[in-house]
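Researcher: I'm preparing a figure for a lab meeting and need a structural model of a single chain. I don't have an experimental structure, so a prediction will have to do for now. The sequence is pasted below. Please return the structure as tokens so I can convert it later.
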Amino acid sequence: MRLFTQILALLLLPASLLAQPLITNETVEKMYFDDFTDDSQNWPTLNEANIKATVLQGSYYMERPGSSKSRAIMPTFPSISNKFMIKTAILLAPGNTDAQTLGILFMVQSDGSGGFVFEINKKQQFRVRGIVSAGQYITQGENGWLKSKNLVANEFNKVVIKGFGGSFDIYINDVYNFSFKNASFKTGDVGVLIGPEAKGKVDFFYVYNLNASMPEIVEKESVASELEKLRQENDSLKLELAGKPASNFQDAEAAIKILEQQLESVNNENALLKKKAGQNTGAGVKQLLVKIDSLEAENKRMLQVIELLEAGTKNEEAPQNPANTNTPINKETGKKEGE
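Model: Understood. Here is the structure written out token by token.
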């Protein structure tokens, strides 16, 4: 009976508590840091009607009065790669409304085309969302919000965000809370996002390079695009080989035959991958990568064949000198004298 009770309790645990972080055994190297112990020049000082921000008593203070929209505040740190760790502590101060939010921006594109934000609110909830359009929630909950017992109201909450090649882990007060995968961005900027009518502080903000012995996430769309490019290149090589002179055609014909068989195999396999894409994206990506490696090797081999054929063609077209250059040639007959 006791064993049954333990199993039942385990099954009733939230899925987020059973999940495991994606990034493990990593090493980090500090890149940028700010603990706001002096007049920091890394973060802007703002004093406008609907946004105020300044270094104040060892932290970065922000306020967003009289506005219905969030405001991003970006430091002067250069862009980082998608292999990083952010370590910070944020406080959402008491205010007039429970709708206040404070967030950490990461992988933000300089042209505004994308990025992510981790946010907390006054209800001990957090969410992760994209920043391009409203409702682009990555966490699953009402408006993306998830409850976390690790969040503490009206106090600094330590937040760690790890990223490695499209995998992301989020820790709150040293406890793992959430992971997601998205390989849309190779580089991006970091910052904070202060919500409407909110007041907040950042106690420190550290950014690290992160290395881990794990594969990076590959978007199937980008792999399929590369595969199509390689196919077109192979088609071009096939046409180039077919245009070689007849004296070299035996070599070209053999190479073309191999290429045609290989391309037919690629087409058949790709059709199967498209059919299975919705069922097993991960396996589909793996197979596409294997096929790309094969095509790249084939391309190199075909290019070597072309170079050899072109070299042979040049040798055939070169004028042949008479065996004895000292023997005069009869201009009328075009023959050497004595022939």
